[in-house]
Structures are given as structure tokens and as C-alpha cells.
Amino acid sequence: MDSTFSPEDFYLWASVGETFQFYYIPILVCLGTVGNCLSVYVFFHCPKMRHLSSSYYLSALAISDTIFLLTIFMVWLRFFEIDLFNNEGTCQALIYISGVCSFLSVWLVVSFTMERFIAVRYPLNQRSVWTVTRAKLVISSLVIFGVILYIPLVYLSAITDHSGTRVCGIEPELADLATKFNYVDTFVTYVAPVTIILFLNMWIGRIIFHFTKIRREMTLRGNRFGKASDSLKLKYANTISQKSITKMLLLVSTVFLCFNFPSYILRIVAYMIEVKAITVRYSYILQQLQQWCQLLFYTNFGINFILYCASGKNFRRALKKLLRIKKQQRTGRSEVIVLTDSRVQSSGSSLASIRRKLNIL
User: Fold this and answer.
1) Which of 28, 195, 275, 283 is least surrounded by CB atoms within 10 angstroms?
2) What is the CB-side half-sphere exposure of residue 176 using CA atoms within 13 A?
3) How many alpha carbons lie under 13 Å from residue 88 in its C-beta half-sphere?
4) What are phi and psi of 138, to 5 degrees?
5) Does pTM surpass 0.70?
6) What are 225-252's pLDDT values in tens digits?
7) CA 179 to CA 182: how far, in whole Å?
8) What is the maximum span of the chain, computed from C-alpha positions, in angstroms?
């Protein structure tokens, strides 16, 4: 079967992947960076969203995603023979920063999911449990833990000679240690968070379904709402008020799972199967699959703004309101400038008339 495989086939698919990366990466980085910056702006400039703990999680997520996008952009510069990645120092720095950002992005989603779970499961107590101060503490703890956890990447990464070319990769003498660290990283950044997110999302969906059912019953039987206890009414009202931001959470976490799953599966396969046991044909196929799945993984860092706009009603309202205010401010400044110009012209004409009268006299 491998005898029918032509190396030209691999180079053809490789060139297609390279061409797609050349155009896709800068578009993703530019749009993703702009979207993440707009998200942070909305979360911190909208009065209603500024005091929500979830806004701090999502702002931290946007900042982490933006830093990650900038690291892959620096790697992309090799297309213009600006090879920062395959240089001593920048190789270790970019791998370390991307590792920390990947960790932060996934665990910020987990933290946000837990915050939403508390808000939906215990709506009467969520304000006392998830405060802005506690959100800042959780974010700071995650940053410190991630910075410490990924220090080994600095020592495991090195510039190696690959067929006469300097390549940033794993230190050959530390290959076994790198494999073990990869297992730890896979568990920390995918297995554990995915398990938590799936469990909490199913529970959140169950709670929302339960209260949606109650709402339907109260609509059909209006007198039942009158007989309901005050605590049930309040709990129901608070749960429904959390529905919009919870829908946004479910979409963000679901997209995260879908976009990360192929990359991590192939990553595990690549480490579990010995390279010598793989035929040339399947080695090439695995490389190409990893390349395309990696692009899907990168996409997750640049589309959250679109997800917020698609699923977050409060986010859309805040964005429209802020853009409207900015437009009014610009219009107000223009009117002031026009008014000032008219006053200058008026005073100038008055001075001219005075001069003419003086000349006549």
C-alpha cells in the first residue's frame, strides 16, 4: 500500500497547508486581537457589566488569548524570512508563553463555568459567593500557578540541527522527560478541564430545563404561580435573569471543547505510537492532520468576540450603547468646532466692519 504513495502527493498537500496558513494566520490574529480588545473595552466600560465577576474572567480570557495570538504571529513571520521562532532564547520564550496562555485560557473557561454553575444552582447566594474580589483572587492564583507550572518548558526546549537546518524543538537528551511533561500538560489543559466543563454544563442544562419547565407550567396555570412560595418565585426570577450570560457560557465552552478535541487527540496519538512503527505514508498523513487540527486549535483563541455577540444579549446591548455614546461624542465635538468657527468668522466680520468705518472717518 505504501508503494503506491508518492512523495509528490505529500508535498502537494503540504504546500496547500502552507498556503492556507500564510493567509489564514494574519487574518485570525488581526480580527481576533481587535475582537478581544473590544470585549475587554465592553466589559470594563459598561456600568452594568463592570461590577460582574464574570466580566473579569472573560476579560482575563481575552487578554490571554490575545497574547497567544501574538506568539503564533511571531512564528508566522518566518514566511517573510523573519525567523524569530528558530533562534536561541525566542524559541524557549515563545513555547513558554504559549504554554502558559493555553493553560490560562482553558482554566479561565473552567472558572467561568463554575461561576455560572453557582449562579444557576444557588441564585440566591451567588452574589455572596462569586464576588469581584474573589474573581480577582482566582485569576491571580491561576496566573501564578501557570507561570510556575510551565517553567520546565524553558529547559526542555532547545535549538536542534535537523538536516542542516536550525529548528526549535525538544532537547534530544530530555526527550523522555518531555514525553512525561506532555502527559501532565495534556491532563492539566484538556482531560481535567474537559471533564469538569462537561459535568457542570450538563448540570447547568438540567437546571435550566427544570426552570423552563416550571415557567411553562406557570404560564399554563396562572393560579399556580400565586400559590408558589416567595423563595421559589425569587429563585425562579434570579435563575431566568442569569439565562442570557449562561447561554453565552455554554456556547463558549462547547466551542472550546470542539476546537480543542482534534488537536489533543492527535497529540496523544503522536506520543503513544512509536515513530518507527509508523509507515512513511501514515507518518505524512499524521503530520498533515496535526497541521490542520492545530489551525482549528488556534481559531479558538480568536472567535470569542463573535460568540459573545451571537449569544450574549446583554453584551450586544452594551456594545451598541458604547458605540452610540462614542458616535454622539464625536458628533458633539464636531458641532463645537463648527460653532467655534462660526463665532470666529462672526467676530472677524465685525472687526472688518469696524476697520472700514475707521477708514471712512
Assistant:
1) 275
2) 1
3) 3
4) -65, -45
5) yes
6) 444 454 544 444 444 445 667 777 788 8
7) 5
8) 110
